[in-house]
Design goal:
Blueprint: E1 8-12, H1 20-28, E2 33-40, E3 47-55, H2 58-68, E4 82-85, E5 96-100, H3 108-115, E6 121-128, E7 134-142, H4 145-155, E8 169-172, H5 176-191, E9 208-212, H6 220-227, E10 233-240, E11 247-255, H7 258-268, E12 272-273, E13 276-277, E14 279-282
Antiparallel strand pairs: 1-3, 1-4, 2-3, 5-7, 5-8, 6-7, 9-11, 9-14, 10-11, 12-13
Amino acid sequence: MKESDAIKLFIGQIPRNLEEKDLKPIFEQFGKIYELTVIKDKYTGMHKGCAFLTYCARESAVKAQSALHEQKTLPGMNRPIQVKPADSEGKGEDRKLFVGMLGKQQSDEDVRKMFEPFGGIDECTVLRGPDGTSKGCAFVKFQSHSEAQSAINSLHGSRTLPGASSSLVVKFADTEKERGVRRMQQVASQLSVFSPSNVCDAGPEGCNIFIYHLPQEFTDSEMLQMFLPFGNVISAKVFVDRATNQSKCFGFVSFDNPASAQTAIQAMNGFQIGMKRLKVQLKRPKDANRPY
């Protein structure tokens, strides 16, 4: 039987000649497999070079990801195999809390005791400066989203702890994605980038940029949010595989003026979000007929 907290994994960079029976030996060494399905085009039946995998035990999925993700390249492939939680699984970010307005004297154990009544805790860490003194905040990760939500409902604003300047703050922690977007917006504000002059009324040349190496979970709206600080965005689109509904990890943004496009390229090319560094470049004239 499958454990209630089992993780569904997305497996990428699989040779198209390998079916489920060929893949099982690669993954069975980490634990009993509950379900393994090669993803195929629903219209043509063609192998898409990726699969979904669910182990019976959560621990098996963690081991497989640690041992295989970008560690091993299967025969005939140019890039190493990808083993990571499927989009629907998230990364535990829906159960990780940020706790602010703690007293400086409170330890990890003190915080754990405060949150233990609401459920099982996977992680509890008070943030500290280089000298070891508490920053007055912590991260607490529960075993489920519902437990984390219960803690927020009961504790947020409920009391003022000794040494704190205002009432306790308990909220869901920012995701890696949100932190990346916020850092980018800080960069943009420092550059004073928005320039309404030089409006691109002679066509799209110089106003469109391509963005590569996007995190898999990025959506159109998050792309828009990311690039709005650089100027007036006409459109923002992440390319998605129609069969799997998985992001292809690249997209494009259209500004209404070339100055904004150039500033966005200068600020965001090489910008790191999580484990990825963005590649941002101007759409070349030869790409003019590329279908969106």
